[in-house]
Structures are given as structure tokens and as C-alpha cells.
Automatic annotation (TrEMBL):
<comment type="similarity">
    <text>In the C-terminal section; belongs to the peptidase M41 family.</text>
</comment>
<keyword id="KW-0482">Metalloprotease</keyword>
<dbReference type="GO" id="GO:0005524">
    <property type="term" value="F:ATP binding"/>
</dbReference>
<protein>
    <submittedName>
        <fullName>Vesicle-fusing ATPase</fullName>
        <ecNumber>3.6.4.6</ecNumber>
    </submittedName>
</protein>
<dbReference type="GO" id="GO:0046872">
    <property type="term" value="F:metal ion binding"/>
</dbReference>
<keyword id="KW-0067">ATP-binding</keyword>
<keyword id="KW-0645">Protease</keyword>
<comment type="similarity">
    <text>Belongs to the AAA ATPase family.</text>
</comment>
<dbReference type="GO" id="GO:0030163">
    <property type="term" value="P:protein catabolic process"/>
</dbReference>
<keyword id="KW-0479">Metal-binding</keyword>
<dbReference type="GO" id="GO:0006508">
    <property type="term" value="P:proteolysis"/>
</dbReference>
<keyword id="KW-0175">Coiled coil</keyword>
<keyword id="KW-0812">Transmembrane</keyword>
<dbReference type="GO" id="GO:0016887">
    <property type="term" value="F:ATP hydrolysis activity"/>
</dbReference>
<dbReference type="GO" id="GO:0004176">
    <property type="term" value="F:ATP-dependent peptidase activity"/>
</dbReference>
<keyword id="KW-0472">Membrane</keyword>
<dbReference type="GO" id="GO:0004222">
    <property type="term" value="F:metalloendopeptidase activity"/>
</dbReference>
Length: 276
């Protein structure tokens, strides 16, 4: 069975677009695409082909999962999440069976919850959607991908609950071209690293519940964190608070953030070190 709320413990169950910083154009594009769920009659009357799949493309920790969750809240849809790696098995047919189950679960959960729509989120799509016949492919993988294509083609415009597939990847170049054809993942939304204003907004979001010193300017921290993702910035705010608490300082000051920046950068380097 698939996890209705999806994976890791540090990820919130619900997200709203207002809580996502530095992704204004991605949010705009996504909201536009979500009109297909919100206003199906109007779309149908215009003879527009409904969107079945949206691909979020960008580096790790930039908010792709948050965006998918926010899309579910925005459209009041059931949310069901899985990761590409969950479908990769050495035993023939198991991955394909799991894909079938995922779509079945989404339909039945939405019906039980009396929701009009369900959003299926697949993280790390490149793991199961790798180009067929390529080096990293494998016959079992191909079967799993074929099943995903079959399920996407089976999404029907008039069915209720309506289904929308949102997938995330940081390697869209690895994907099998069949996934990107019209009627499948034909909308790609870029979710890049945030710029300085985006970083300030994300820091603002993640320090809302923290006592900041009056002299601290989040813009200064944003300037010093070029290349940080949203996940890095969330971790930075948390580390700065821990450092302040350790010193028994009632407020989080600039120097706590400065020290925490080094910690986050060091942590990133350690994560990248190959294990021996
Ligand atoms: P991955 O590719 O590794 O799955 P992702 O792009 O899906 O990463 P998320 O899982 O959405 O990233 O982000 C992880 C956490 O980082 C979030 O729960 C949130 O705390 C923080 N975060 C990331 N991006 C943003 C953002 N744009 N605004 C606010 N918080 C963010």
C-alpha cells in the first residue's frame, strides 16, 4: 500500500502555496495547469485536451514535493505519494503490479473520501522512467515503465474522481521520450534554486516561529547563502536556533546564522563524500 502522506518525517503533511518561497513562476504555471481539475466543464466545452501529467524539474530540496502537496490542498484532492525507487524490483512483473495498485489506490481513496479528484505524486521519476534500452535500463524496468504509460493513457477526461499525475525529477534528460509525449507529461515546470529574494522569503517562512534578534536582517543571510536550496535554508534556520539555545541566548542573532551556514555547507560536503 502506498503512503497517503508520503515518506520522510521532516516533510509536512499539508502544504500551501503561500508557504513555498522563491518559486513564484513555478506556482503560477502549476496553478494554471490545476484549472483542468478545478474547472473541467469549461475546459471540456472549449475542446481542450485535459492535462494528465505535470513534470516538476529541478535540483534536490527546491520544493518539488511541497508544490505537489500544495497542488493537492489547492484543488482539495486526495494526495498519494510514491518514489520511483519503490517500483524497481528484480522480480518480473512486481513493479508493473505496484504501478497498477498505485492508480487503483488513488481512485478508491478519493471515492472513499468523497473527493472529486486525486493527485498521484511520483518522486524520482528518472528511476522508473529511464530510457528503454539504455544502459541503466533493464527488462523489468521497461515493463514497469510500460505499465505507467498504460495507466496514464487510461486516465479518462470524464471519470470521477479525476486523476492527475505529478512527477518530480532532477534528470529529465534521462527520461524515456514516450513519457514526454502529448497526453502524458506534456507540461514541464522548472523548479530551480531560489535567487536572493526567494532565499529571503524562504528564510522568512522558516523563521516565523523563531525568536529573532531585532538587529538581524534576513536579507543579509539571503545574500550570504548563494546556491542554497529551500531544504538547506530550512536546515540553516533550525541549526541557528540550536546554536542560540546551546548558548542560552534568548534570541537568534546574526552570528548564529553565520556559524550555521558553515555547518550546513560542511554537512553537504560530508553527504557527498563517497562511502568507503
Ligand atoms: P527532492 O528532490 O530531494 O525530493 P524536493 O524538491 O521535493 O526535494 P522538498 O521535499 O519539497 O524538496 O523540500 C524539503 C524541505 O525543504 C521542505 O519540507 C521545506 O521545509 C524545505 N523547502 C524546500 N524548498 C522550499 C521552498 N521553496 N520554500 C519553503 N521551504 C522549502
Amino acid at each position: 500500500k502506498f503512503d497517503e502522506v508520503g515518506g520522510a518525517i521532516n516533510k509536512p503533511r499539508h502544504a500551501r502555496f503561500e508557504d513555498i518561497g522563491g518559486q513564484d513562476s513555478a506556482i503560477k504555471e502549476l496553478q494554471e495547469a490545476l484549472q483542468f481539475i478545478l474547472r473541467p466543464d469549461e475546459i471540456g466545452k472549449m475542446g481542450i485536451r485535459p492535462i494528465k501529467g505535470i513534470l516538476l524539474v529541478g535540483p534536490p530540496g527546491t520544493g518539488k514535493t511541497l508544490l505537489a502537496r500544495a497542488a493537492a490542498s489547492f484543488t482539495s484532492s486526495v494526495f498519494i505519494a510514491a518514489s520511483g525507487s519503490e517500483f524497481i524490483e528484480m522480480y518480473a512483473g512486481i513493479g508493473a503490479k505496484r504501478i497498477r495498485q498505485l492508480f487503483k489506490d488513488a481512485r478508491s481513496k478519493a471515492s472513499k473520501a468523497k473527493k472529486k479528484s486525486a493527485i498521484i505524486f511520483i518522486d524520482e521519476l528518472e528511476i522508473l522512467g529511464v530510457k528503454r534500452g539504455s544502459n541503466s535500463s533493464h527488462m523489468e524496468y521497461d515493463q514497469t515503465l510500460n505499465q505507467l504509460l498504460v495507466e496514464m493513457d487510461g486516465i479518462c477526461q470524464n471519470e470521477e474522481p479525476r486523476l492527475l499525475l505529478i512527477a518530480a525529477t532532477n534528470r529529465s534528460d534521462m527520461l524515456d521520450p514516450a513519457l514526454l509525449r502529448p497526453g502524458r507529461f506534456d507540461r514541464q515546470v522548472q523548479v530551480g534554486l531560489p535567487d536572493k529574494h526567494g532565499r529571503a522569503k524562504i528564510l522568512n517562512i522558516h523563521t516565523r516561529n523563531k525568536p529573532l534578534d531585532d538587529t538581524l536582517l534576513l536579507e543579509d543571510i539571503a545574500r550570504a547563502t548563494f546556491g542554497f536550496s529551500g531544504a538547506h535554508l530550512e536546515s540553516l534556520a533550525n541549526e541557528a536556533a540550536i546554536l542560540a539555545m546551546r548558548e542560552k541566548s534568548p534570541k537568534i542573532e546574526g552570528r548564529h546564522f553565520e556559524e550555521a551556514i558553515d555547518k550546513v555547507i560542511m554537512g553537504e560536503k560530508m553527504d557527498r563524500k563517497p562511502s568507503s
